[in-house]
Every structure is written in structure tokens, then in C-alpha cells.
Amino acid sequence: MLRLHSQQGFSLVELMISLALGAILLAGAYHVLAAVLGSSSQTLRVSQLNQQMRAIMGIMSQELQRIGYWGDALNQDPITNPNPFGFTISTTGANTNDCILYSYDNNSNGLVDPEEQIGFRLYVSGFRRIAQWSKGSTTAITDCSANWGSSSYIDLNDYNVVRIRELTFTAPPAECTNLSTVPRSNCNPCDTDYQPWAVGDTLVKVPRIDITLSGYLAADSSVTSTLTTTVRVRNPQIEVATSAGPAAGTGC
């Protein structure tokens, strides 16, 4: 004999409980998704800033490594005719330590041409940016505080994307070797094996430049980045000491 069984669905209370639990789960999933998307967006912003900052630092480092290159060096006596190429860091005025003027023999003709006197500086007026005096200019740049003129420099950063908070150049004591002693001695006052030089000693110095670069995104100033590096100039400088070496630790 066929028997019929009654079937029961969800009661109203059970249905309401199920809907409530589903809503809670959906809300949790939404918050997790929002957090993931927010984190990804922040990561992209940080990555964008770091990429731009590393590019700026790379340009400056590669340029400064070339300081002091002299195409006619092999035909000159570095003692009687010292290298005319070098660098100066601004230590006074509004551009204290945020501007460096430098030169190298870009065309290897042995002469310091106007377009071979270049510089990096931080412009703080208006949008914060780093400017490089154009190597194509026929005018030498010799003053960090002067108005370089918008047609004479190029910006290293797109200030609509990245703005520079800090740019600092410092020159620690150069690596130094005294060629007049036997054996050759270390003439860097900051090193533990330093030996003071005498008047007339021939010194070979390898300059170093410390750079600190700090910036932020123009669209979000909370996204910041700070980079530091030490540039070792590739072209040693030879000089004859006109005074005796200082005491150990001087200038360190």
C-alpha cells in the first residue's frame, strides 16, 4: 500500500537565521576584499615612489662618479699642472649641502669647457624638484644660489608624481695614500692606521660623496621614501701637500 510522507521546509525563524548568517559572512568577505585591495593599492604607490627615487639616485650617482676625468691627464704632470676638474658642495646660504657643482672632461679635449661645468640642486620654490644644469648649455654654472633659468636645466623628477623633501650632499674625508713614504701609508685622518703626511709629500686621494634623498608622492604625502648612498669617484686626485697632515680624527 502506497504511503505518503509529509515534507517540511524551513520555518520562518530558520530562514531568517540563515539570511542573517549569510549577511554576516558576506560582510566579512567584503571587508577582507576591501583590505586586500587597499593593501595592493598602497603597495603599488610605494613601488611607484621607490622606482622613481632609485632612478633619480642612479642618475646622480653615475654622473658624480665621473668627476675629475681629464682626457689629457697622461700628457700632464699632475704635480706642476694639477687636474682642473673637480667638485664643490655648497656649504653656505639657502642651498647649504643641497647643491653640488662638478666637472669632468666630457669631450676629452683636456680643457674645462663651459658645458662641462654642471650641477645638481634642490629647488624648494614652487614644486619641490631636483634640477640638473644642462650639459648642453654653453654657459658654465658656478653659483648654487643663482637663478639657473628654466631653459638651462632639466628636472630629474616629475613633480606631478614625486616631490623631493630633502637632498643632501656631504664629502667625508677622501681615501688617501701617501706615495712619498716607504712603504706607502694611509693619509686618511679617519682611519686607524693613519699616518700624518709632511710638507711636500705626494698624496693620491679618491674623493667620496654621501647623498641622502628623501621624497613623497604628490598625490599622497603619507607615502615617503628615503635613500642614501656613497659615491666613490673613479678618478683619483694627485696633489703635493703644502702643509703638514692634521691630527688623527680631524674632520671625521
Any overview of this molecule?
By secondary structure, the chain is an alpha+beta fold. The chain has a domain at 42-171 and 211-225. The protein has one helix spanning 12-65, and strands at 87-89, 99-103, 117-123, 129-133, 153-155, 162-170, 175-178, 185-186, 202-206, 208-217, 220-232, 237-240. Strands 1-2-3-4-5 form a five-stranded antiparallel beta sheet, with no helix packed on it. It has a four-stranded antiparallel beta sheet with strand order 8-7-9-12, with no helix packed on it. A three-stranded antiparallel beta sheet has the order 6-10-11, with helices on one face. The longest helix has 54 residues, at 12-65.
Could you state the order of secondary-structure elements as H and E? HEEEEEEEEEEEE
**Which term fits the overall shape?**
elongated
Category by helix and strand content: alpha+beta
Name the beta content range: 25-35%
Q: Rg from C-alpha positions? A: 31 Å
Let me know the average pLDDT: 84
Kindly state the number of beta strands. 12
Compute the separation of the termini in Å: 107 Å
Number of helical stretches of at least 4 residues = 1
Biggest sheet strand order reads 1-2-3-4-5
Helix content: 10-25%
Low-confidence segments: none
- Largest sheet geometry: 5 strands, antiparallel
Please describe the topology of this protein.
Layout (H helix, E strand, L loop, with lengths): L11 H54 L21 E3 L9 E5 L13 E7 L5 E5 L19 E3 L6 E9 L4 E4 L6 E2 L15 E5 L1 E10 L2 E13 L4 E4 L12
Antiparallel strand pairs: 1-2, 2-3, 3-4, 4-5, 6-10, 7-8, 7-9, 9-12, 10-11
